[in-house]
Amino acid sequence: MINSLYKEVRVIAQMKEALEQQGVLLLPEFVDEKSYQDMLSRIRKTKGEKNYSPAKFSFSELNIKFDFLKSKELASFVRIVTGRQLSEDFELMKFSHKDFTLLHDDFVGKNGFDIYFFIMENEWDASWGGNLVYSGKDTKIITPQPNSLVIVKKKSDMQPFIKYINNFAKKEWIGIAKVHF
Amino acid sequence: MEWINNNLESGKFVDKFGKAKPFPHIVIRNFLNEAVAERLLGELKQEKFTFKDSDLFQLNQTDDLKFTKSRLLKEFYDYARSKEFAKIMSQITGLKLSPGALDLAGSLYKSGNYLLCHDDRVEDRKLAYIIYLSKGFEEKDGARFVLFDNKKGKPNTEVKKYIPEWNSLLIFEVSDISFHSVEENFSDKDRYAIGGWLH
Asked: Cα–Cα distances in Å, from B79 out to B4, B101, B129?
């Protein structure tokens, strides 16, 4: 499933260094095309359960289990790149027009790593909103890309939110598998 | 300068304001003298608006109007902080209000701009007021002022939405349940307003 490029020794060394230096790693074309299209197809068919708390978040929770997200292959990859064991389950969400998450005291987190896997139909335009933003001393802004894995080395002063998605996105959506460990 | 429409009978609104749900608020149409409203809009459009972008909002705002170089806007600022203005607001709301304009500024919501749910509670703000200088907005355009009810003190559902009508005043009591938002502007129209707080 995982793109063989990311298993090359030279590339692994580059990824580890980039994560250490910049605190963020974005890996496009992360899984093979067939696996990605299968995941995309399952999300397309799933409506999801609306989660809405006006002063905190709005998104649809997807009750789908992707074997890939629980696979030994992914866990091994994460351990190699981060040095930590991935043991928690991913949360799977769908964001579309009017969805967002806000900074909130309830979500003040700890140090560790956040991992996101983006599953979406088409390329995303940053002007539509939907960007993953980490606010803190050094703000980081990540525009979702289809079939991309993002690893963020999270410090306690960094808090993430998903920017409100505006009407320019029309019917486009972003599927996000997220875990913190 | 006659700022306010002299047909305004401020005493007749107290009951309606106090009993409004989900929290005390009122919308008063034709608030300003019509000619003054047009001139204010003209001056406002000449002001420098700064784009503000965070998790909670995306909109454009002027500096506090106490710093404006526009003579008319400065006169309006002086009026908004006057005893006369505080007295009129007190008559409308039944609240005891002190003169002094807190953070009076112009706002501009362009296409795609919005302000998500919050309660406005900062320092000693007691009353929020917004004068809409927007033209031609309809329901389909969005950009409405939205009020939320609450469940155990947390915002719950959208219960009222007000279209930003030209020369209307919207005021609400700031409290721990005054949850509100500005709906995304779905149109290409510019939504101008001047707003501030009284304490």
From this structure: 10, 9, 14
Interface confidence, given as ipTM, is 0.94
Token pair, residue A45, equals 């068919």
DSSP A156: T
Note whether B178 contacts A: Cβ–Cβ < 8 A.
no
By the CB < 8 Å criterion, does B159 face chain A?
no
Residues B9-58: pLDDT tens digits? 667 899 999 999 999 999 999 999 999 999 999 999 999 999 999 999 99
CB B39 within 8 A of CB B72: yes
**Residue B147 pairs with which residues in a beta bridge?**
B160, B180
Of A54, A98, A103, nearest to B55 by CB-CB distance is A103
B117–A55 C-beta distance less than 8 A: yes
Which chain A residue is nearest to residue B141, measuring alpha carbons?
A167
> B73: which residues sit within 8 A by CB, 6+ positions away?
B40, B43, B44, B47, B65, B106
Asked if residue B56 lies in contact with residue B118, where contact means CB atoms within 8 angstroms, the answer is yes
Determine if the peptide bond prior to B22 is cis (ω within 30°).
yes
Tokens representing B121 are 């509670």
Chain B neighbors of A164, CB-CB under 8 A:
58, 114, 116, 184
Task: Quote the pLDDT of residue B123.
Answer: 76
Q: Is the pTM of this model over 0.80?
A: yes
Q: Do B116 and A166 touch (CB under 8 A)?
A: no
Q: Over the range B124-155, which residues count as b (16 or more CB within 10 Å of their CB) and which as e?
A: ebbbbbbbbbbeebeeebbbbbbbbebeeeeb
- DSSP single-letter state for residue B142: B
From the list B58, B155, B186, the residue facing A54 with the nearest CB is B155
